[in-house]
Amino acid sequence: MTEDLMTIREMCETYDVTPRTLRFYEAKELLFPIREGQKRLFTKRDRARLKLILRGKRFGFSLEEIRQLLDLYHVGDQQLTQMSRTYEIACERLADMEARREELTQAIDDLKEQLRWGEKVIVSMKQEKKAAE
Amino acid sequence: MTEDLMTIREMCETYDVTPRTLRFYEAKELLFPIREGQKRLFTKRDRARLKLILRGKRFGFSLEEIRQLLDLYHVGDQQLTQMSRTYEIACERLADMEARREELTQAIDDLKEQLRWGEKVIVSMKQEKKAAE
DNA sequence: CGTTCGCATTACGTAAACGTCATCTGCATG
DNA sequence: CATGCAGATGACGTTTACGTAATGCGAACG
Fold it and tell me: Which residues of A touch B85 (CB under 8 A)?
């Protein structure tokens, strides 16, 4: 069935994006679908990249930042020096992400505390209301 | 010194934003500086809100989403029904954030694996180079 | 064989989140 | 008193990330 290649429509349904979005990502060199005549055919690689793009977006990365991140995932043909540089960048990114998770954890804890507080307020408001009746 | 009130300039330096940004946030009802004549004076509350705004931005929330989140933090005057609704929204947000953290953890693990792989490649490339000499 | 479908390209439009510029205004200071 | 800031207020510009026609084109279908 999906013999490793997907049409634009299949991609859209699978990943819940519009055709326009996929074409846009191609224009921005985030995806590189092959062409059968005019039509685009998206490979396994494109799909992996798209998943990473969507994930990146959910964390507030710009498409340009995501493009740089994506480059970390298709290393293999590069020179040693390039490779090492890429490796360094990836390490930095990793540190970023771990810091982000720390912050997110903090935010979650904060919100949880607010919720506990809100819960108490709601309960006491209910009590008041009852007493007033 | 900072007798609980800060000028726009002080805010900018403290939080590394531009005046325009602060005015913009006020226009969007994210901040409510008090006025001394014309001038804005930012309170402790504004500063707490700004910190949350900046944090939210780092996680890719839109300003509108952030505004809703901020409302969760100044509850207290609301009616019970409003309050309960707010509470529900907050719970959903919390779930979002926890899901986000899950995803982030996954992303971190993925990248770590890539790094281990990259490390191996680099080592083998160095070996090759050595052998070639 | 005409038409509909799916996909393509080109081009203009739009919402969000500010940047930038021009102009105005108190106020402090030499 | 002139003048120079710090901050205010529009108003228009800009970038990002697509949306939305308008138009064209090859294959498939009735």
Answer: none
Higher pLDDT, A125 or A51: A51
Phi/psi region, residue A37 (left: phi>0; alpha: psi -120 to 50; beta: rest), is: left
Q: Could you tell me the maximum CA-CA distance found in chain B, to the nearest angstrom?
A: 79
pTM more than 0.85: no
For residue B39, give how far its alpha carbon lies from the nearest alpha carbon of chain A (Å): 32
Residue B48 contacts A, CB cutoff 8 Å: no
Q: Which amino acid is residue B13, in one-letter code?
A: E
Q: Tokens 């531009």 sit at which residue?
A: B18
CB contact under 8 A, A76 and B103: no
Gap between the Cα atoms of A92 and B26, Å rounded: 35
pLDDT bracket for residue B88 (50, 70, 90): confident
Q: Determine the Cα–Cα distance for residues A70 and A30; give it in Å rounded to an integer.
A: 8
Mean pLDDT, chain B, as a whole number?
Answer: 87
Distance CA B97, CA B91 (A): 10
Number of residues written out for chain A: 133
Binned at pLDDT 50, 70 and 90, residue A2 comes out as very low
Distance CA A115, CA B75 (A): 11
State how far the Cα of A23 lies from the Cα of A17, in Å rounded to an integer.
11
What number is the average pLDDT over the span A99-105?
A: 90
Q: Does A95 touch chain B (CB under 8 A)?
A: no
In this structure, the dihedral spanned by the alpha carbons of residues A98, A101, A105 and A106, taken in order and rounded to 10 degrees, is: 80
The pLDDT value given to residue B133: 73
Quote the distance between the C-alpha of residue B112 and its chain's center.
25
Contacts of A46 (CB under 8 A, 6+ apart): A11, A31, A32, A33
